[in-house]
Design brief:
Elements: H1 6-18, E1 22-26, H2 45-48, H3 51-54, H4 57-62, H5 64-79, H6 85-96, E2 100-104, H7 110-119, H8 122-125, E3 131-132, E4 135-142, E5 148-150, E6 172-176, H9 185-197, E7 200-204, H10 215-222, E8 226-230, E9 243-245, H11 249-256
The structure holds 2'-O-acetyl adenosine-5-diphosphoribose (OAD).
2'-O-acetyl adenosine-5-diphosphoribose binds at residues 27-29, 32-33, 38-41, 44, 105, 134, 176-177, 205-207, 209-210, 231-233, 235, 248-249.
């Protein structure tokens, strides 16, 4: 696939710049250049590991130690990574103009870290925070009473050494959405409300294979938004794109979000 032409980049830039309200939907690809593997492409996590063994409530009930071992490993790997040029460009853009809602499927917290780095001030950075549809790798939630805490290092030697709830003593679990689970209702509501009002929708680094997240782009399109897609490979949302840029987010977002 050829790199996008200057005219295609300009078409994307103009569609986003003129929209009063924009909804941005990001997936694992926006973090690929930070060194975090995606899920479905070559080398993707779901090509190397079975989601049924690691990312379902049934798997956790069957073997919480194994599930925690995998999430603790991911938590430590992701902690070492840094926001890339795509996260930074998005954070700068959101903090420099009103009307942008960022919706992310990612659990890596790199959008937040970029917003904090760019803003350098917690109050300002809060404007750059994403709506997180699939939770966070860096929070634990009690499997019994739902109490949430910030997650630390996990000793997955045995069930006894796993994190336990400071409130009720129940077993904690990673605060991420697993297959077969409902998404956080408030996040879904806010994401679809932003999509319904959007004049443009920027989709970055997602195959668009997982719902309801992918439905955010369809909802925006249905409400009349121009859809701009940035992804190096084919996605299931390509059919609704008004502007389709093939390439890496870290290379394409800085020019299309400039000015
Ligand atoms: P996928 O792995 O399905 O898709 C990643 C997308 O990123 C693909 O379309 C790649 O072509 C693209 N990509 C790769 N490198 C890129 C780059 N440098 N710049 C831009 N795009 C790039 O990941 P998601 O669509 O995010 O759910 O997956 C959705 C959900 O499925 C995840 O949130 C996760 C997973 O199961 C849960 O954990 C609940």
């Amino acid at each position: 696939m050829n790199a996008p032409s200057a005219a295609e980049i300009e078409a994307a830039r103009a569609a986003l710049a003129k929209a009063l309200r924009v909804v941005v939907l990001t997936g694992a690809g926006v973090s690929a250049e930070s060194g975090i593997p995606t899920f479905r492409g070559a080398g993707g996590l779901w090509k190397q590991f079975r989601a049924e063994d690691l990312a379902t409530p049934i798997a956790f009930g069957r073997d919480p130690r194994l599930v925690w071992e995998w999430y603790a490993w991911r938590r430590e790997e992701v902690r070492k990574c840094r926001p890339n040029a795509a996260h930074v460009a998005l954070a700068r853009w959101m903090l420099s103009r009103p009307g942008v809602t960022l919706v992310s499927q990612n659990v890596d917290d790199l959008h937040e870290r970029a917003a904090r780095e760019v803003a350098g001030d917690a109050d300002v950075a809060s404007r750059g925070l994403p709506i997180k549809l699939h939770g966070s790798l860096f929070h634990d939630r009690c499997a019994r009473c739902n109490h949430r805490v910030e997650g630390g290092p996990v000793n997955a030697a045995s069930v006894e050494t796993l994190p336990h709830c400071p409130e009720c003593g129940g077993l904690m679990r990673p605060d991420v959405v697993w297959f077969g689970e409902m998404l956080p209702a408030r996040a879904v509501e806010a994401a679809f409300a932003a999509a319904a009002e959007a004049e443009a929708c920027l989709v970055v680094g997602t195959t668009g294979a997982v719902y309801p997240a992918a439905g955010v782009a369809h909802a925006a399109k249905g409400a009349g938004a121009s859809v701009v897609i940035v992804d190096p490979a084919a996605t299931e949302l390509d059919a609704i794109a008004d502007v389709r840029l093939h390439g890496a987010a870290g290379e394409l977002l800085p020019p299309i979000l400039a000015g």
